[in-house]
Amino acid sequence: MMKKIDHIGVAVRSLDESIPLYRDVMGMQLHAIEDVPDQKVKAAMFEVGDVHIELLEPTSPDSPIAKFLEKNGPGMHHICYEVDDVDVSLEQIGEKGVRLIDQQSRPGAGGKRVGFLHPKSTGSVLVELNSMSD
Ligand code: CO
Asked: Which of the residues 58, 75, 89, 108 could staple to 83 if both were Cys, CB 3.0 to 4.6 A apart?
């Protein structure tokens, strides 16, 4: 069902302060910076092979990332797996008793459809699924 790791999400307080570490020190290519209004974040995507690192800065105090930073400080936030169809996967996974944050997919970074599983059901690892939107 999971095709590959699409990206790893990292919560940061500031993209401006965090980008130089990834771009200039670790030498990763900055692929895109975009607003994801649905999740109230600004995301910077770096390429590492065919996986991405997604730095997430909150754009509002009620952003899930703002709440994460308040509780945990900056750090690893989620792992995202690519699937064929997020809605199909959410339904199949939900039927197996896993709690879902999203019952249905919503718009995410890179013009893709995304959906999150609840970390209470996944060993405290926040799992995102994404697929190309059709
Ligand atoms: Co993500």
From this structure: 89
Q: Which residues surround ligand 1, an ion (CB under 5 A)?
A: 9, 54, 80, 128
Q: Ligand 1 centre and the CA of 8: distance in Å? A: 7
* Structural domains of the chain sorted by starting position, each given as residue range(s) with its CATH number in brackets: 4-132 (3.10.180.10)
Predicted confidence (pLDDT) per residue in 41-74, tens digit: 999 999 999 999 999 999 999 999 999 999 999 9
Asked whether the beta carbons of 36 and 51 are under 8 A apart, the reply is no
pTM value?
Answer: 0.94
